[in-house]
Amino acid sequence: MQTEKRILDIAIECGYEHEQTYIRAFKREYGLTPGECRESGRNIHVTTPLHLFPNNNVCGNLVYGPNMVMIPSFHLIGCIHRIEIAEAPTEAPEAAKQFWWNKRHKVLHPVEPNIYYGLTRTPDPSLSWTYYLPSMRVQNMKDIPDGFTGDTVPASLCVGFRYIGNHHYEEISELRAEALYTAIDRLAKEHNGRYELLDSEFFFEKIDIDAYDGQYCQMEWFAPIRVKYT
């Protein structure tokens, strides 16, 4: 996903003597060939040595993870906000609601009409603020409405968490958001620096509105991660 190298060259770099041996092993692990993986844009779940804590109680709800996932590159269009980091648990959910209620319909031809993306980027770790983009996923950047912004999330190995709450998705409050980040911070500290969480580069949440069944909502959260080799 992150390169245009030939499959043969990738196979050799991974220690395989023959391209077909690599392709068979890849398909056995992931259910599709490397070429199909590159073309499909599917998320690829990676078997990980991370210790998976089964859940964290978040205000009476649950956070599952972490999982390691290879995220393909994708495009977003939305309305960008500059938000102070200290105010993010309050202001980001409010910006998300306003975008979903009032502005998402201006994004033409969304790939996933019922899925919300909230992308956070930190232009400089020394700053006290971030850019937050409430957005929809699109096929390309050809049609960006006036007043909207486009961004491309690079193909990345990410750590992912899944939040399940017994409430409406619009009720993801400041308290719940802070509890979720506490669970994520636990990952970074549990492994004594073995894994580097690259959330200073970007991170995003993903909410499938159709997943709300009248009682429970779901939210996924992803950030790049790097394994430190010693």
From TrEMBL:
Pfam family, one: HTH_AraC
Keyword set, alphabetical order: DNA-binding, Transcription, Transcription regulation
Domain HTH araC/xylS-type: residue ranges: 1-40
Transmembrane region(s): none
Superkingdom to which the source organism belongs: Bacteria
InterPro entries, alphabetized: Homeodomain-like_sf (IPR009057), HTH_AraC (IPR018060), MarA-like (IPR050959), Reg_factor_effector_dom_sf (IPR011256), Tscrpt_reg_AraC-type_HTH (IPR020449)
Keyword Phosphoprotein on entry: no
Keyword Ligase: no
Any GO molecular function: DNA-binding transcription factor activity
PROSITE patterns: HTH_ARAC_FAMILY_2
Protein name: HTH araC/xylS-type domain-containing protein
Organism in which the protein naturally occurs: Paenibacillus glacialis
